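Q: Convert this sequence to structure tokens.
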Amino acid sequence: MSDLFGGVPSVAVLLPMPLDGPLDYAVPEGLELAPGDFVLVEVGAKRIVGVVWGPGEGQVEATRLKPVATRLDVPPMRAEMRRFLDRASDYTMTPPGMMLRLATRVPELGEPPKSRVVFRRGGDAPARMTEARQRVLDILDDAGIGLSGAELAREAGVSSAVVKGLADQGTLERVEIAADGPYPTLQRLEPGTHLSDDQRAAGDTLRAAVTEDGYSATLLYGVTGSGKTEVYLEAAAACVAEGRQALVLLPEVALTPGFLERVEGRFGVRPAEWHHGVTGAERRRSWHAAAKGTGQLFVGARSALFLPYRNLGLIVIDEEHEGSYKQEEQVLYHARDMAILRASIEGATAVLASATPSLETWANAEAGKYNRIDLPERFGAAVLPDIKLISMREHNPGRDRWITDPVVQAARSRLAQGEQVMLFLNRRGYAPLTLCRNCGFQFGCPHCDAWMVTHRFRGELLCHQCGHVEKVPRACPECGRDDRLSICGPGVERLAEEAASLFPEARIEVLSSDLVTSTAQLKERILNVAEGGADIIIGTQMIAKGHNFPKLTLVGVIDADMGLQGGDLRAAEKTFQILHQVAGRAGRADRKGTAMIQTVQPEHGVLRAIMSGDAEAFWRQEAYLRNDAGVPPYGRMAGIIVSGTDDAQVWSVANDLGRASGPLMSAGVDVFGPAPAPFARLRGKSRVRLLAKAPKGIAIQPLLKRWRDSVKCPSAVRVVIDIDPQSFF
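A:
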């Protein structure tokens, strides 16, 4: 029996389940266990992987405990990782087991390593050398380790038949290796020689931060097209040269394909990937590479933050302002904030990169908590686009039309010069509402308080909240009339229909998340656009960030006012960010770009800030308003959602919480509500909302926990507390 816990006969094992803490298990005779060990234990009739969190509490005799089945042959979870999960659990008010679940979502963890077939240089020269064959051999020589046939073909840009032909001739040799083998070693870790003076200075500053011991955080604030990626890859190079691991977080998988090519161009090899677009085998390989320290650079979505890195030295949060960094389901956390927490625990450098930083990050830089590096100019010959506001009060496009005449005329001029045009509308589908003009029936979701969105390309009505799908009906289900159904408002599909009528000769590409079935398809379509395969690009927010279309010189924003509606305290900030980002797609090469923004309220402060180009003035004004209201980042907020299938039970619990809020109020925490949530019914459940607001200096989590636990809650009712909510639905 292990004496690593002072000879205790039991250990506390944390399980990836919604439990408030670890469970005690007996330590079998002869089994040595230490904190962080991955073990297999029984829970009911199942065997589950858990992590030894400490000695058992001893409240139950060891003879009455289930024994640990076995210790897994994987690297133990480091103390820094366990501390990160504990602190993340406390901050987000998430059961620690659910935080562990984020760190153990890897296929077949603990199973013996599998094998895969790779190719290496054989002894025979090819009977005839071709350019394609030479590329394959060059790629293999540069990689330093064996690559699979698919990897070789992809990297060399050849068909699989070329690789097979070389293998059949003995030029390549098939070798079986462990599937969890290491990734290729990064090349060219010295400072880049292709940088501008501003980029080089910024890169040198970040390199110095990485090589210093201890935690630091830096806002890398650069205009669109200024080359922020090249700068923070300099930090990654310095980190890897120091023998530590680097992580780059991206807000969406959609940004990954083009980014990976840039990484490969900088370092000669592709990094490890972690997101839902990669296979289970590749996720397993990445997890083990992180734990063993054999992976140097990792690129992934927000969940990559929970990989068990052995020696993490750098975390980059690219486009750190993006709302998709906030996970809104099950475990509620913001990857940006958790990245800062992890970097502080690991003694790592955090880099927050954005052309439109979140007010939280901007305020931390203003207060001196973060360093700040500015890149005020675009890289190379590119210059920032001209911005024009188009008042729809003066230029009304007419009934069932959405593109104003000034935008049409500008588009025709650009297209005539062989340039590309982008039309941006942040609304998927064909139309957001379908109704009957005879009886007034509106097509709503049967499970949510939301309209069914018409998707004409697919012939479906779709709820964007729960995913419920129906076929587009021929007649009104209420009155039976088949000649009075009317669609209201535009989506990108309807906009594409209008563009086709206005520009009949143009090739139109619609880019929207519901029209792309895979990462590979998205990559292909974006590459096609970048190479000039489309004249007009129409899309939602997925086209507003990360992509570089050299021939794109005109951006038309169809409805700039959409995001300014509603009671979201971040409405102005989010609108400013998305408009700034989408406008920045224009003129990123050597041709001057223009962004034309259609609006019914051109006098709005957000739009005037976009026009002036004075982002600092916008942030200062937004900071003043938020500080005056005592809301984030100058105050603390928590959203509380009470939900369940029984409306009466939900309201009963919500009212009990409201009546029990006295101690919170006495501690300086204001409680608002209960009130129906904006989506009062979602996925078939009733929802009631409360809101807690406190000064910044108050640690609200312990207060909220006592408050929540003071109210009896039926098993059919769920109370979810969202610390630092990003949305209020």
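Residues 197-211 form the longest helix (15 residues).
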